[in-house]
Input
Amino acid sequence: MTSIKPGTGTLDTEQIQVVTADGKVVRKATIAGAMGSFVEWYDYGIYGLLTTYLAINVMGSKDVGSLLLTNIGFLVSFLARPFGSVICGYLGDKMGRKTLLSTLLLLISASTAAIGLIPSHAIIGIAAPILLILLRILQGFSAGGEVAGAMSFVGEYAPNRTRNLSMSFIAVGSFAALLFGSLLSTALIATLGDATMEAWAWRIPFLVAVPLGYVGFFIRSRMEDTPHFAALRERNQVERNPLKAVFTSKRHLQAIAITIFLPAVNGPGYYLLFAYMPTYLKTSLGNGHNFSSVQALMVTAVGLVTIIVAIPLMARLSDRIGRKPVLTLSAIAMAAVSYPMFTFIVTGQMGLAMVGAAVMAVAFSGHAAVVHTVLTELFPTTVRYSAYSIGFSISTIIFGGSAPLVMTELIKSTGSSMVPAYASIITALITLATIFFLKETKGQALRSH
Output
């Protein structure tokens, strides 16, 4: 059962909305959020994991030009995110979280499965990459509304004192999805071989999105809307025009600026260390150090297992000592270990590469565990979905979606396989600088207005 308790507390003269949900409901909300995150990032992750096979089949070859075009497919999905964030954020703040999030899950799963059904370039020519780009745009639109919605959904259910721990399982779901995708891809490659993967088996991971999407939809559709949004609706305080409220408020615009720059290290941390890493290990090390497909996926899997274990621990630490200390330590760690750990990775030796991936995962885990909780706590319930979606989508365009494309080009032009290390250091410093503009929000109730 969910109970709504009007409160009269204040935070910076803003109304605090005191709402509670019992433990069983909170657990269901956490599972629903984590499952949705799993489906979304499985869909996104396998695109990065299977880039080489997409280049062969959809683009016609696996040379650098085709990999570049496939990485453009990665980028356009992020360019579509702001459109999804604006539209879905507006609807989520007007109509509620639950129904929209269930629909988005179906949309992203269907577009992922459709990628697995695209006829090869040999059959339909240029229509194949065009279809891929269109489906990636649809995925991006869906994901633009998914991230902030899922985080808001769980955050608005979770107790104040353990909000970060509850929300951290959404991040765990995203990395578990990549791990599942990595292990599935590894098993298929090891069992069927590269030739069969190139011929047709690359489609299997994409088609797996169908049952995963159905399970996620089933779980989400059985939830009620969040107690925080229900309280707004009961009091007739739902924002009539959330976007207008966002863009006419200096406070909201300042918070959006933080939402853009605080997750800067998320780009190298997530997209380079995990989604792009298999392609990087197979194509960018040079001097005979490139890994095989199976080896590259196994190195990535070690990093994923490490971060899945570390995230809840970092989240619990944040609930005890605060958001800012954990974010600060993580940003400093990323800046400090990126160069030495990438020197391990580029040796081409499995053992050293696994150590490098694991250490980088631990360094990044503090950021991955905490950043979305902070972004949720930055905004009031009336505009949380809209403002959070807009800021984070812009951030992913700048620091995330362009990462594979930029890395491919920079490595090619400079001849240096250490480019990702430099990107990690620079973005960690941007995140570190942004932390100074944050106010500590540990244990505080979410604002309603």
Summary: Strands lie at 2-4, 10-11, 14-15, 19-21.
